[in-house]
Design brief:
This protein is mainly alpha-helical. The protein has helices spanning about 1-15, 35-40, 50-65, 65-70, 75-90, 90-105, 120-135, 140-160, 165-175; strands at about 15, 25-30, 30. Helices cover about 60% and strands about 5% of the residues. The radius of gyration is 17 Å and the shape is globular. It comes from Sphingomonas endophytica.
């Protein structure tokens, strides 16, 4: 599963990009120069290797935030969270999940509210399992929609607070939100 998700992200992100309006600066395969440097890369970003990007995506955006554990319960949700993590950061993606699960727990009757700490731990996984079991076959799709709603709101807010981000808003909404059925 993760191999296909990584390939899709790399295909979507493309090769070398250095858009002056993008605060991320120079990227290759969607990996920013700052992330590449933090992971030991010292060369020119034009030459950053695809296998290094794959390793970073797997480690930092899938395994470290615990999305592999989410996938064991809800693979389509994990795919959506992975894409969100790549674009907004893993802690933001997981916080969206925690916020949605808390808002959907019927006032704590189904499972306790979650601390929105951006980490997939036992409580988050227990709440996810309980939500899926309690709400039935449409639960995963509903949770994906909730995460995407939070994602869309964040994109709009980013564009409202930094006019340069308006250049990216259409693409973010077209390519990132509503893609939970990937």
């Amino acid at each position: 599963m993760i191999d296909d998700l990584i390939d899709a992200v790399i295909d979507r992100e493309g090769g070398f990009v250095n858009n002056a309006a993008d605060r991320g600066g120079a990227t290759r395969f969607g990996i920013t120069e700052a992330v590449a440097r933090a992971n030991g890369y010292t060369g020119d970003m034009r030459h950053f290797a695809r296998p290094a990007a794959v390793a970073i995506y797997r480690r930092l955006y899938w395994t470290a935030p615990g999305l592999d554990r989410v996938a064991a319960h809800a693979p389509r949700l994990a795919a959506e969270l992975f894409d969100t993590a790549v674009n907004m950061g893993p802690a933001v993606a997981v916080t969206f999940l925690q916020r949605a699960l808390t808002a959907l727990n019927r006032g704590g009757r189904d499972y306790p509210d979650l601390a929105c700490d951006g980490r997939v731990g036992a409580q988050t996984l227990d709440a996810l399992a309980s939500f899926l079991a309690t709400r039935g076959p449409t639960a995963e799709s509903v949770l994906i929609r909730a995460v995407e709603a939070l994602q869309g709101e964040r994109y709009l807010s980013l564009a409202e607070h930094r006019p340069a981000n308006e250049a990216f808003l259409y693409g973010w909404l077209a390519n990132r939100v509503g893609g939970g059925e990937r």
